[in-house]
Automatic annotation (TrEMBL):
Residues 21-164 form the FAD-binding domain. Pfam families: FAD_binding_3, Trp_halogenase. The lineage of its organism: Bacteria, Pseudomonadati, Planctomycetota, Planctomycetia, Planctomycetales. It comes from the Bacteria. Signal peptide: none annotated. Coiled coil: none annotated. This is FAD-binding domain-containing protein. InterPro entries: FAD-bd (IPR002938), FAD/NAD-bd_sf (IPR036188), Flavin-dep_Halogenase_NPB (IPR050816), Flavin_halogenase (IPR006905). Transmembrane segments: none annotated.
Amino acid sequence: MIETVTPETDDRAQPPVAEAYDAIVIGGGPAGSAAAAALAEAGKSVLLLERQPAGRFHVGESLIPETYWSLKRLGLIDRLNEVGFVKKYSVQFVSSTGKESAPFYFDEDDDGRVIEKEGSQTWQVERGKFDRMLLERAEELGAVVRTDAHVLDVLWDGEPLDADGKPNAEARAAGVKVKFGKGDAAFTREIQSEVLLDATGQTAFIGRRLGVMEADPHLKKGTLWSYWENAERSPEDPREDGCTVIIQGENKKSWFWYIPLGDGITSVGCTGDMSHMFGPHRSSTTETYESEIAAAPGIARRLKNATRVRDVFTTKDFSYYSGVGAGNGWMVIGDAFGFIDPVYSSGVFLALDSGLRGASAAIAALDSGDTSAATLGAWQPEYKKGVENFRKLVYAFYDEGFSIGGFLRDYPQFKMGIVDVLVGNVFRPELDEMFEYMPQSRRETATA
């Protein structure tokens, strides 16, 4: 069953904290843990600050194959296999009428031949266990990790905002003011750093304080999700048993994720426009969730003999980005940099990738003594191009006349381009040609 860690059950010992560090990372999710691990492995003194217990409940269980290389870089492949997470070899799409595409296998070439290559298989993970594994790896490599830390403010050399309320390019982040512990035992400290990495996810700690967060006007969605036991699976074929299925809802007004997890549990989420999911015509989140399932044959048949075993959860999947990604002495990584609609399961991949890219830039900056915005943000332009390729395919997905199957019938030469995006190989300039043929992907896109 889905594991949950609460403050009441977290007995983790909290280590002592020094007065100053080479780097402070705010946030202990995948981006923050990856960055802290890489910095510590490079011999830098690192403090990771997280306000929640390690292993808390989180949605976003499906990993795309390119996460493999980040996880290998962190030395976690054997550990992932030992934990026994469900292995994922493919993704499949189902139309609103229940018509199913053939699975897109990650280990096949353009002619459908199986290729034995490293990184062509990934995992469906229980995020509590997965995130705790990453956090523990950062600690093993030498990072000081506190999970009782509420960061109150950034310590700035100079005013962070100018007279017009815009970010001051001359200001420098010099550390944080943080509250440790709870209740009568709580205390507040100011801790210095050469580099500050904001990995606070959708909280976007620095970006929101500087007023640089921008929403994507085309991707304002809401999600309902829960967990099911005994949902339809394909145990006779391990290459299909772990398949992520993306299923269109009635009239393409919503879509479902269908993610097989361990112990016979399946994660099932439904995403649609905010007005559709939470409008005044809706009575309750549970009734909305159940009615969306009933109206979509592709999901209804898969849950015919299943039992829902958790409450229905909600979240607002507003896609956004930070208009400023780095400054003197600081940078943003992971969801603090930007968030994209979850339809292609890009979240953990982008978190890990940006965390490691950010760490590499911070290491170079610390080694050279140049912690300017230009040095700390040098990795971000290339990263943004990859993020835009995900965004373009998301835009196409929401176009009423678009389907991946139909697109490939018209343009079979782009099959491997579609697979490249689905696996996370999004930093290839060759993808530009494919997107020229897609509706909505030509829409003016965001810049992060």
